[in-house]
Amino acid sequence: MPSPTGRTLRPEADCPVETALAAVSGRWTTLVLRELLHADHSFGTLRERLPEISPKVLTERLDELRGRGLVERERLPGFPVRTRYALTDTGRALRPLLIELYRTGEVLRAGSPGTAATP
Amino acid sequence: MPSPTGRTLRPEADCPVETALAAVSGRWTTLVLRELLHADHSFGTLRERLPEISPKVLTERLDELRGRGLVERERLPGFPVRTRYALTDTGRALRPLLIELYRTGEVLRAGSPGTAATP
DNA sequence: CGGAATCCTATCGGATACTG
DNA sequence: CAGTATCCGATAGGATTCCG
To answer: What's the whole-model pTM score?
Structure first.
């Protein structure tokens, strides 16, 4: 039986920490968010920006993000079909977290062995 | 071939965001960190605090965290053997991130459908 | 007590081909 | 263009048992 969230069930899933982690975890997720933080995109332009992601995984990521209310899809009229993916207000609320992730990642590197600081 | 980090290889693994995410992702990881942020622990007391974690997974998490320089292990003399796990300075640097994860998780919930706000 | 060694399963993610 | 449908290999993680 698939988990209710579409993501691996975690202990204490009711914890906000898990809620936030679920939103950004999964391969390609942060990169998709990064693209959408920068600008709205169609399915195709997202693929151009992330050339190595497969259509299946991109669909999965976008579905998850939509399911969490972080991304919205708009179908543009005309032919061929065009879509437009955009962050919702809630999705944009992830920006501070991504910044903090970046900042922390830099700190972790500075504190890791192998990074010569005072030789 | 196992990935060099011991964790699923991610695209743009050189990105600090991925570095930080790798440090906190994985089931039980944030809970282990939470316990260690609160106090030092032995293998056994960690198991008491997290009754559902298996010894194998706890070992894996502690090894990963040690491998990243976030946790240190001290073997206490005497018998039976006792160990003490503690966060390093680098490990304590994760606290702001965990706080931001908590904060963001709360925001995501407030912005999710189903949470009646203004009926 | 503090792990290590096995075995086993679910699921995640990649590749590919096809459709409305 | 914007996905869907399959198939498939690789892990992550759980349960259990054993060792120093």
So the answer is: 0.89
